[in-house]
Design goal:
The protein has 241 residues and is of the alpha/beta class. It has 6 helices and 6 strands, in the order βαβββαβααβαα. Helix content is 44%, strand content 16%.
């Protein structure tokens, strides 16, 4: 799975992804149960947010996200293979949980398999938090220290499934990472093709590159050498006689 969504238990991952998938399914009365196991969400990126999309091309772009329950934190590492983007959700209204969330985030970003992975830190439930809670959450997460010690690209977004704040930034992040992954794949493909062409030309050698002597020229040179040798032999016979 190319994209996974993780976070502490009860941080609001299911609420957030459900609202991103279909905004009409989440309101102030919606309640969800903590995920035990995994969920898969196929989220459509709005066309007006997709960079470089032609007006004639109305085909929707999707991003498939695997949500892993917070109670499965000891098993998160088993899902890190071939992951190029991670959404990490933190509940800003629960200050008692933020320090634990920071420890989990640090342990994830320190994994050797995720050194080139793009991270999106979502401070969710902002509708339940007062404004100062954002600064307190970043301070408790020790974001300044994380950015100095770890080299991954970490983007921070404030969001709320109820008010839909921050959704546009999340959609844009998903589209940007998707496009960069496609561009990277095309670059690697072109490099592999050029290397294969170079190796094929080296195997064929100069006879197939038009440089150096050809077979026909070598035969004609050999014939000339034989004729000269015959002339010399004839002259030597005349002298002997």
């Amino acid at each position: 799975m190319a994209c996974i969504c993780v976070g502490p238990k009860g941080s609001g991952k299911t609420h957030l992804l459900s609202a991103l998938k279909n905004e009409s399914t989440i309101d102030i009365t919606t309640h969800s149960v903590s995920t035990v196991g995994t969920n898969i969400f196929k989220i459509a990126i709005p066309n007006y947010l997709i960079s470089g999309l032609n007006q004639s091309n109305k085909k929707e772009k999707y991003s498939t996200i695997l949500e892993i329950g917070g109670c499965m934190a000891p098993l998160w590492r088993k899902y890190f293979n071939n992951v190029n983007k991670i959404i990490y959700v933190v509940d800003t209204s629960n200050l008692c949980q933020i320090s634990c969330a920071g420890v989990l985030l640090y342990s994830i970003m320190a994994d050797p398999r995720l050194q080139k992975t793009k991270f999106l830190l979502v401070l969710t439930k902002m509708d339940l938090a007062y404004r100062q809670m954002r600064n307190e959450a970043l301070l408790m997460l020790q974001m300044a220290k994380l950015k100095k010690q770890l080299k991954q690209n970490l983007v921070i977004v404030e969001a709320s499934p109820i008010t839909r704040d921050g959704f546009e930034d999340i959609y844009k992040w998903l589209d940007t990472v998707r496009r960069k992954a496609i561009e990277g794949y095309k670059e690697r493909k072109s490099e592999e093709d050029s290397k294969s062409k170079t190796s094929e030309s080296n195997v064929k050698g100069p006879l197939h590159q038009g440089s150096g002597p050809t077979i026909d020229s070598s035969i004609s040179d050999l014939e000339k050498l034989c004729q000269e040798r015959e002339k010399q032999d004839g002259c030597n016979r005349v002298r002997i006689r």
